[in-house]
Structures are given as C-alpha cells and as structure tokens.
Write a structure and sequence with these properties.
single chain, alpha/beta, TIM Barrel, six-stranded parallel beta sheet, three-stranded parallel beta sheet, 40% helix, binds fe (ii) ion
Length: 235
C-alpha cells in the first residue's frame, strides 16, 4: 500500500476538491489506487492569505466520518503545502502553520518564476527554524533545474525532493524531462505523490506512477521511495 503525502482531497479550502461529493469520490479512488494513507495538504500562503483552518478541520472530520461509515482502509492526516513567504519560518516555529502529519517535515512550494537565490535562502531559513523542507514538485522550478543544484539542495540545504506521479507518467507538461530522469537515476528523489486536485484531469495516479518507477529505475529504487515516506510518521 502507498502513502500519498501531497493531496488536495479536502474540499472547500483551496483549488482542490470543490464539494463534499468530490472528496468522497477522491477518497474511494485513492483506495482503488492502492493508497492507505493520505496527508491532506491544502495550499496555504503563510501570513499573506488567511487560511480557513476551521473549515478545513470541520471538513477533515467529516472525511474521517465518511471513511469510517464506508469502512475504507484509509487513514487521513493533516498537513499543508506552504507557498514560501518571509513569514513561513516564524509561523512554522510558532506552530501556526501545519507541517506534514505533525512531523518536523514541511512541504514547501515555490513560484515557478522564483530565482535560485530566493529558493536557497528559503530552504536555509526553514532549516534554521528547526524543520526539514520538502520541495514540492521539484520538477517545476527552472531556476533550480540542474542536477548540480538538486544535489546542493540536499547536501547543503538539507532539503528533500518530491516529484508528482503525473510527471512520471508524462501526463504533465515537462520541459526538462532529462533532468527528471537524472534525478531518479541518481537516487535524488525522496517522495512520489499524486498532488491530486480533483477528478477528472488531476486524478490519483500512485499505482501507475510506481509501476513506471519500477520499470524504468528498478525495484530497489521504487522500494526505497515507497519506504522513505515512513520518516514522516516515525516521530
Ligand atoms: Fe499541491
């Protein structure tokens, strides 16, 4: 079974699921896709746009109740996809924005137009605040789109790397396919996640993505990525 650590499955809080029924469909689809744990990661822009945490908490509880009622073999955890802002490190330190499943790992998103200096500065500050930054969909940022930079993100700035399953399936636009393949070949990818927003179009894709991973890069690489996600739950 798989863990999806990046998902916009909870309705009514961002551009993910638009209503309760869509969330229910997405939860059923996740089970059919071999997923047994989902960390719900709505978009949050810390200190810039207010996030409706009360709404999220309420919808999250309703989703748990649905899972119990339907007896789905699925566990849900709270999290967030944080679009990096200057206030992010402080709000993380103060516990005012969520990490992934209450761990010290924070899923951080950047704007595709962000410069490398901005990204490395952000990673340093998140690390300095006592958290481990996970770069959400690493394949999207041209400014850090070289292997040397990816290695530097990990060794110098202690960041981890997440790639979207759809990218692996070549369903998402990708200008630098060679870069992505090299990331996998060199074992630089820590997490595959669906980043699912809704059905259809950005639906869940964990099982097919992991199959591609296994076929192209071998069972050892696939298994390493599959197991790696457990660090988010180990504390
Ligand atoms: Fe996302």
């Amino acid at each position: 079974m798989y863990t999806d650590m990046h998902s916009h499955v909870i309705w009514g809080v961002d551009d993910g699921a638009k209503d309760r029924e869509e969330t229910w469909d997405m939860l059923r689809e996740a089970v059919n896709d071999g997923i047994s744990r989902i960390i719900c990661t709505p978009h949050i822009t810390p200190g810039v746009y207010p996030f409706p945490q009360d709404v999220f908490d309420d919808h999250f509880e309703q989703a748990l109740a649905f899972i119990r009622k339907e007896k789905l073999p699925l566990s849900l955890y709270k999290g967030a996809e944080l679009l990096y802002t200057d206030l992010t490190p402080r709000l993380l330190r103060e516990g005012k924005v969520p990490t992934l499943a209450g761990s010290r790992y924070a899923l951080i998103e950047f704007s595709p137009s962000d410069k490398a200096d901005h990204i490395t500065d952000a990673l340093q500050k998140v690390t300095g605040a006592g958290f481990v930054p996970i770069i959400a969909h690493m394949e999207r940022y041209p400014a850090i789109g070289k292997i040397r930079q990816a290695e530097e993100m990990k060794t110098r700035y202690h960041a981890l790397i997440q790639i979207n399953g759809r990218t692996l399936l070549r369903k998402a636009p990708l200008l630098r396919r060679g870069f992505q393949e090299e990331l996998f070949r060199r074992g630089l990818v820590d997490f595959i996640a669906t980043d699912t927003h809704a059905l259809p179009g950005r639906e869940t894709c964990m099982t097919p993505a992991m199959e591609v991973l296994k076929d192209k890069y071998g069972t050892v690489a696939a298994s390493a990525i599959r197991q790696r996600v457990n660090i988010l739950f180990d504390e």
